[in-house]
Amino acid sequence: MTHWPEQQLCELLRLTDENRILRSAVTLIRDLGFDYLQFSTALSACPHPIFMSKGNLPPRWTARYHDMDYARVDPVIAHCRESLAPLRWTDELFADTPGLRQDASAHGVSHGLSLAVHDAHGQMSMLSLVRRTLPVSDDEFYAKAGASLWLCNVLHERLKNHVIQALAMTSTELSVRERQILHWLAEGKTAGETAMILNLSERTVNFHITSAVRKTGQKNKTLAVVHAAKAGILDGVMPA
How far apart (Å, rounded) are the C-alpha atoms in residues 115 and 88? Predict the structure, then answer.
């Protein structure tokens, strides 16, 4: 078991500001020998999990991950949806997604471990500790998994309410068409697939997506879907 200085742990438990919590957590994971932290809270209402993520991963990789829609094929997410067991990143884990593995490594996201927590309310969070070089050995994995699990639980308890509040901030209602489109995106459909379902052109679908992103005050369509579903905007939507 890896031990952190008691002063650092007490500081993390006292903090309430989201940014200070994340900075403190990054300091702790660097003490464990990792470069990056990603903490993600999933929208549990969606059959295909959509995550609101925080951390210090390279911005270019974060943008690339979203652009390529890697969440749909990421074996780390697939594991964490079903299991509480910590997971070590290996070539075998990414055997079916070598493109994801190579792309991540090219951005310095090469080696790590991940784990998840699922609370009594059905809310799921996932924590990944990542570094640029040096694979995580078996001995290191078993030595550090316990501390990582503790940190994941603390971040889940300290940050999940920040995420929920952020998703509920907008008061602007989406149009029926915008909600329909976000519904299908939440179901894991692409813009092209959504266009076929709703008998629209893909250009029209993308127009409505842009409008929904603007109305919800989010940065991209993924975050707009998270916001709409968590705020109950998609409840009772007639999908077509």
Answer: 9
